[in-house]
Amino acid sequence: MGKCSSGQQKRIVMAMELTPDIKPNLICVDEPTSGVDSYSALLMIKCFKKLSQRHSLTIITSIHQPNLEILMLFDSLYVLAKGGLTVMRPGGFVDRNG
Questions:
Q1: Residue 85 falls within a domain, yes or no?
Q2: Whose CA is closest to 55, among 22, 32, 30?
Q3: Overall domain count for the chain
Q4: CATH number of the domain that 38 lies in?
Q5: Of 1, 20, 74, 98, which has the highest C-beta tally within 10 A?
Q6: What is the pLDDT of residues 59-80, one digit of tens each?
Q7: Secondary structure of the chain in the HEC alphabet?
Q8: What is the pTM of this model?
């Protein structure tokens, strides 16, 4: 993996984690979209969404500055702000109108 980019390394590690016959029921991923372009980030989050639905997985991830399309893919959202303020939005992000 030494000659792979950081984005490629992240994809390889995720693939290695998900290939065993026994799938985990919880996966924690720290900043999976860092170091990848916006299109790859979108594909990655869409893939996580499909995996979570298909295999009944819970995927917890941290993500910095996602675009709206990516943000709308999350089922639940916790926003951490400076000073310890935490805002939770069950069921996903607030829609554009509300």
A1: yes
A2: 22
A3: 1
A4: 3.40.50.300
A5: 74
A6: 899 988 888 899 889 888 887 7
A7: CCCCCHHHHHHHHHHHHHCCCCCCCEEEEECCCCCCCHHHHHHHHHHHHHHHHHCCCEEEEECCCCCHHHHCCCCCEEEECCCCCEEEECCCCCCCCC
A8: 0.69
